Amino acid sequence: MNPFRVGKSEFSLEELLEFNDLLVSVVKGQAPMEETLQITSEGSHGKLRHVIGLLIESLRRGHSLADSLDEQPDVFHGTYRETVRAGEEGGFLGAVLESFSSYIWQLLALRRKLGQAILYPILVVIVAYLLLIFIGGRTTSGFVGFYESGDLAVPAMLETLNDIFTKYTFWMWIFPAMLGFAWISWMRSNDSRMLSLSGGAVLLRLIPGLSGVLRLHRLANFTELMASMMEQQVPFGHAVQVAARASGDHLLIQSSQSPDALSHNEGKVPPFLEWLMKLGSSDSKVGRPMHYAAQMYRRRAETATEWIKILAPFAFLIIIGGGATLFYVVTVFLPFTQLLHELS
User: Reduced to 3 DSSP states, what percent helix, strand and coil does the chain have, rounded to the nearest 5?
Assistant: First the structure.
């Protein structure tokens, strides 16, 4: 068993951002890695201090930064470790880490906005659910009592609904449990598994447009790194591979093994980026246009995030309101119309 492995949960996004910003300051400032980390650990506390201590031990044994992070897989998400490795091997670790900090900031902002957007629908869900149980149970039992007191045959549907409500103690907890599971998953999405929408963050995939927003952010990171490397005259094929691995986008990573595939659009990149890639592969100077493209993708991602924030509550309310209305029709109005029909 690796003595340097930490058996704790992964960094939260805030902790990962703090750690990554620390590495940025070390790498960009060209400060000695081990000495700077040692000084930082003395001023840190808790989990961060423990992680930095293990990292220092690994570096002192002659391991690279990426290999040292690999010794703590329970703390550092695979996407982050692969990003650092790509930056080290490509010689652009500082730029890669800066880009990753920007990506984490974007995820934190997105998570905060979505949290604000779904809070009101959750409260509506709870109120609607309690009303459904109370009104549905009282209504169906009242209709059944009226039918029986008048020696009328109780409709099969009404009898079934009444049986369901009289046994509410067996099923009423299911929906709150599902809601609680979703909320716990949302709270757990604060860890670094949100980088790939895995683990506790997997339910976020159900939010329409969210995957597209995250891909726009990854495309922005990819394009920004490509621009920086091409301005420094890094060979095109090597730049593509480093930028793709550092972006954390699996589609780009797979396609980067054959850079020509990215410069001939097969659905891997948007058309504008495809055009820039074609120019870059022919040794054209596209550094500045790629910087503008990265800014464009970031603006598009921010705009899409705002739309999700606006539309998500409406979508929840339509689904919830529509379901509640349908249930009220089935439990109240439909039995009432049947009763009027029989009395007539």
Answer: 80, 0, 20
